[in-house]
Design brief:
The chain has about 210 residues and is mainly α. The protein has seven helices and two strands. Keywords: Membrane, Transmembrane, Transmembrane helix.
Length: about 210
């Protein structure tokens, strides 16, 4: 008993030491909780854009759009439905969510929604993610995602230019092989149609 008392008196617990211990414990708990959350939730990338399971693996979006019919639609189909201008959109993936978000808040994007709609219709995950990344004017994404690497953006941009050139060349090819083109001096390269042949009328009688 004497030894225990002696040790306590020898190393007294001061308020500053107590506070430091409490702060150390809280910091440890915070780091542990953060590490656990990182294991439980991973930030999605463009590769997850059309994944039908990704929304169940990440926290709820900071911006939602439930309407009067959302509950009944969820009961019927088993997935969330968000409303925009009287329309309801099934939210089953990141692609679906950002399609609704762009429709609802189109003023927050530089390019028109038709660009995203094209990629959405063709399930082009990479270009959908690039569209949001490059055109969103807000400070925080409603659903955070890993930024698309600049190399991928440059590659897609170069591919787009190449496709446009191919389209132009294809149009020229079709134009030159069109039946109408065969009537306009194809061998000489003239753009003017040949003059119609005329014949001298035969004299009749004397």
């Amino acid at each position: 008993m004497y030894d225990l008392w002696h040790s306590c008196c020898e190393y007294p617990i001061t308020p500053s030491v107590t506070i430091m211990k409490i702060l150390s414990i809280l910091l440890f708990l915070a780091v542990s909780a953060f590490g656990h959350s990182q294991e439980k939730y991973s930030i999605p990338s463009w590769e997850d854009w059309t994944d039908k399971e990704i929304l169940s693996k990440i926290p709820q979006p900071i911006v939602t759009g439930y309407g009067n019919l959302s509950d009944s639609l969820f009961t019927k189909y088993g997935i969330p439905f968000y409303e925009s201008s009287g329309e309801y959109f099934a939210i089953g993936s990141l692609a679906d969510y950002y399609y609704w978000f762009i429709k609802r808040y189109n003023n927050l994007f530089i390019k028109p929604i038709e660009v995203y709609e094209y990629y959405y219709a063709t399930s082009d995950s990479l270009n959908m993610a690039i569209f949001v990344q490059e055109n969103y004017k807000g400070k925080h994404y409603p659903i955070p995602f890993k930024r698309v690497a600049e190399k991928l953006i440059e590659r897609e941009s170069a591919s787009f230019v190449h496709e446009k050139r191919q389209d132009v060349n294809k149009e020229i090819y079709i134009h030159r092989d069109h039946p109408i083109y065969s009537t306009v001096g194809r061998s000489t390269g003239s753009s003017k149609p040949p003059s119609p042949k005329t014949s001298t009328p035969k004299k009749v009688g004397n």
